[in-house]
Amino acid sequence: MLIYLRVLKESLAFAVNALRNNKLRTLLSLLGVTIGIFSIIGVLAAVDSLKQEIKGSLSSLDNSTIILMRFSFGPTDIPKWKREQFPDVTYEEYQFISRNVPDVEAASFSLNVPAESIKFGDKLVTGVNIAPVTDGYYNIEALQLAEGRFFNEAESNSGSNVIVLGDEIAEGLFGGLDPIGKQVRLYGQRFSVIGVLEKEGNSIFGPSKDGMVILPVNVVRRIYGSNNKAAFPQIVIKPESGVDVPEFNAILAQRLRQYRGLKTDEVNNFFINQLSGFTDFIDNITGTMSTIGGFIGLFSLLVGGFGIANIMFVSVKERTNLIGIQKALGAKNRFILLQFLFESIILAAIGGLIGLGLVWIITIVLSQFTGSFEFVLSATNIFYGLFSSVLIGLIAGIVPAFMASRLDPVEAIRTGM
Questions:
Q1: Of 241, 348, 377, 406, which sees the most CB atoms within 10 A?
Q2: Burial environment of residue 79 by CB neighbours within 10 A (0 to 12, 13 to 18, 19 or more)
Q3: Which of 276, 347, 362, 274 lies closest to 312, judged by CA?
Q4: Angle between helices 333-369 and 320-328 (to 10 degrees)
């Protein structure tokens, strides 16, 4: 065992010395592996960062959450001209579903309306995102309040002039003042501030709640009307935990068909969009991105591997005389083999480490410039990068190392003279 350890140590020392004596050649050989590892790990790190951001943005929502509307999240067999004729969901349908569909833990009706300006005293905040919703929105989104409370069912049904502010809006209007109980002006009306949301940070799925205000949907329905197509109404439903979701969806579709008076031979003129389907769609996209990025990086890595193999053949040619002398002095074939293999593996590993280092530096820089979007370099990707570089070094060096180990000492000394 000690003999093998000594062989490994001496082989490693020879390899490091060879790389040190040929700095320019070593540097040029590193470029291919560095670019390959940088490409692969860079793409994987970007995809992992995107997945983390998506999961963070959707963490407040349950995968069983349903969004009922006249549009589909994904592809559908229904032609576009027919989908355009579908009616919007209505507030009355929201009330019907809340009362007549079993196993509903929470439901909310919401509208999409243009941004507005909101005012307190002489302070004005423009471009504020308005979220007109019902009281069930609080439980569906699992909202966290920094101060105050959310509006209740009675306030929601009656359309009371109460409002919940996002963190940025509260800061812009009130600064260090306590906003609870203060009166703000919106739509030319006075609203009483009853709550402030906790700071959320940026979101990749539309505007952050920090720049949003939430108010009862019936307030906005009085202003925009109940049948405004531009308001893009939707019903969000959260089934109770443990419910059979396909069965729940079937009951929901059946009840809504009955309410709309659809005949047996007519297709649903609405879409039951499952949030889990959306997350699966995102996973497929990120998986495809990883695969494509991996193949691109793999080709770059193979080019680097060919570069290392070429350099190793040159190295064997240059050191033929030295190999002959080593073998004449009693060096075994495995010593010569390990010597060149170590040289190839070390070369590739250094290139891999440089590539990983570049990715790490870029993730730090991008995280600083992109605010709350955090780029991550996981331990799995680091291991994958190092393993890939070592494997490429091993593959690229095996043939030159084998050729060097099989040289005849007399011929090697004669050839090198």
A1: 348
A2: exposed
A3: 347
A4: 130
What single letter denotes the amino acid at residue 337? L
Report helix angle 320-328 to 275-318, nearest 10: 70
CA 51 to chain centre: 2
What SS3 class is residue 163?
Answer: strand
- Alpha-carbon distance of 49 to 53, in angstroms, equals 6
Give residue-wise pLDDT tens across range 92-102: 999 999 999 99
The residue assigned the tokens 């949003």 is 212
CB 89 within 8 A of CB 255: no
CA distance 101 to 187: 35
- What is the reported pTM? 0.62
Residue 59 banded pLDDT, cuts 50, 70, 90: low
- What CA–CA distance (Å, rounded) separates 207 from 198? 15
pLDDT of res. 10: 61
Instruction: Find the mean pLDDT for residues 164-168.
Output: 92
Residue from 82, 129, 144, 136 nearest 109 by CA: 136
Q: Which residues contact 338 (CB under 8 A, 6 or more apart)?
A: 7, 8, 11, 401
> For residues 137 and 94, is the Cβ–Cβ distance under 8 A?
no
Distance CA 64, CA 241 (A): 9
pLDDT digits (tens, 9 = 90+) for 381-403: 778 778 888 888 888 888 888 88
- Please list the alpha-helical segments (H only) found in 329-378: 333-369
Going by C-alpha positions, the residue among 362, 285, 324 that lies closest to residue 45 is: 362
